[in-house]
Design a protein that fits this description.
Number of helices: 6
Strand content: 15-25%
Distance between the termini: 19 Å
Largest sheet: 6 strands, mixed
Number of strands: 6
Helix content: 40-55%
Radius of gyration: 16 Å
Length: 175
Amino acid sequence: MKVVVASQNPVKVSAVQKAFSLQFPECEILIDSVSVASDVPDQPLGEQQTRQGAVNRVHNARASTAQADFWVGLEGGISTVEDEAFTFAWMAILDRSGKLSTSRSLALPLPAKVMERVGLGEELGNALDTVFGTKNIKHKGGAFGLLTDNYLTRQSVYIDTVFCALLPFKKEAYL
């Protein structure tokens, strides 16, 4: 089974590989990663913009690499609810027939000092690196790993979210 991931971030690629392997244990999963535009700001804000980034990525990946069984777009974003900021991600999966499924991750509260940096125009990963003295955290455990002492990681959260986005392609209840 060929799966095209609309990212070259090793954390995202690995999460997609693991989720597909869990959902399709009988298949050999071949991953191709491509860098494509999200057509949303580098730091998406709000549910709609973040979900749209994932959907745009999945369609742009299909346009980039037409021969595959599935295309996967992943987009992390930030949302504010009653003055509390959260980071989360949307996953979009498209199959050869054009069926689209999306799923959203859990939300992680963000510290005010990180949001101050985001408010100055920094992407979340860069803001975390600045505030916590990390280097390239978005290619490692991400905000989830950093703020939960690796109880959760960006990869573990993304595995679960991709796994859920795959349910409509696997479970009889959705077919």
